[in-house]
Amino acid sequence: MAIGWYLVVSAIVFCVGAGGVLVRRNPLVVLLCLELMLNGANLTLVAFARMWGNQSGQIFALIVMVVAACEVTVGLGLVVAIYRRRLPIDVDELNELQG
Amino acid sequence: MVFTAILFFIAAIGAISGAIGVVMLRNPFYSVLALAFHLVSLAALFLLLRAEFVAAAQVIVYAGAVMVLYVFVVAYIGGGEQLTSGGVLRVLGPLFALALAIELCIAMLGAGLAGVNSKGAPFIPGFGTPAHIGALFLTTYLYPFEIASILLLAAAVGAVVLARRRRGLEPDEEIELRVKAPRPAYTGTMAEAAGIRPAGGDELLTPEVEPVGSSGAERTGSGHEGGW
Fold first, then answer.
1. Do B162 and A17 touch (CB under 8 A)?
2. pLDDT tens by residue, B151-166
3. Which residue from B minimizes the CA distance to A43?
4. Which of B2, B23, B96 to mutate to test the interface with A (most CBs of A within 10 A)?
């Protein structure tokens, strides 16, 4: 398969994730959609690594996975903290940073 | 070649449908399952791109560890009512996503890169294997590797700090519960020994035995032999 096909798939996955971030209100699902966007970018990186025959793109994809794991950990910690404080789990209502 | 194409289309359809499932499904638990499916399909795409190590890490780290974390948090929090965003964003969000997809496809396919229409560079033996990736990580990319480990440590500490139970920010139910729990009188608690009954015990205190330490002289006078 030509590399272009992979790029199209990654573009679609990225845009589905971006649409989900805009549409969904549950912070858990927003985090899931962020994962989708990161995975779309990962697929692009790996596809370009294949295109150039250079493994640096795969290294970049692995680092992106590390960053995504960190983001998920902190994000889920925030969601649990929100739940503990009996706040609504809804990104439309969580619009203040004050404690 | 036909076999590769069939595998590609199966994996691509799986990845896209999993992604759509994450966004469309109402129950967050099903969204997490759809994301796991999407990740496994994406790992198949990585394998087709000869990125063995990335595919293995994707399945183990993402579809394994991160999904377990998600499932735990979804089970802890519960589904709740799942509504999509009201009003403007509900219409504009999908439109924006569609416009972005079209624009990205035009930008990438119309970029004029000769490699986009090719099948990629000629295959090097060992491309994408753990040996090559590990050699790169420990030579050329040593600095990002170390920064990634520090980042993971910081994230782990941050998650513990964020998700722990705080005193003072929330009503401390546990302590109130412990103080107000009804207990039968004179069951030998430390509070009784100090002459304090815990609050909330509604039953009247009619002691058959004087609480220790309330009046020491009286206790010794009442013929309380063999005491402590």
1. no
2. 999 999 998 888 777 6
3. B46
4. B23
CATH number of the structural domain spanning residue A40 = 1.10.287.3510
Q: Cβ separation of B19 and A5 shorter than 8 Å?
A: no
Q: Which residues of B touch A5 (CB under 8 A)?
A: 8, 12
Q: How many Cα atoms sit within 13 Å of B210 on the Cβ side?
A: 14
Rounded distance, CA B25 to CA B1, Å? 35
Show residues of chain A in contact with B5, CB under 8 Å.
Answer: 1
Residue with tokens 């404690």: A99
Contact between residue B144 and residue A66 where contact means Cβ atoms under 8 Å apart: no
* Ranges assigned E (strand) in B24-128: none
Q: The complex's ipTM?
A: 0.92
In CATH terms, the fold of domain B1-79 is Four Helix Bundle (Hemerythrin (Met), subunit A) (1.20.120)
Mean pLDDT value of segment A20-48: 91
Q: How far is CA A92 from CA A95, B216, B225, in A?
A: 6, 64, 70
Given CA atoms B30, A82, A19, B60 in this order, what sign does their dihedral have?
Answer: negative
The reply to whether residue B8 touches residue A18, judged by beta carbons under 8 angstroms, is: no
**By the 8 A CB rule, do A64 and A35 touch?**
no
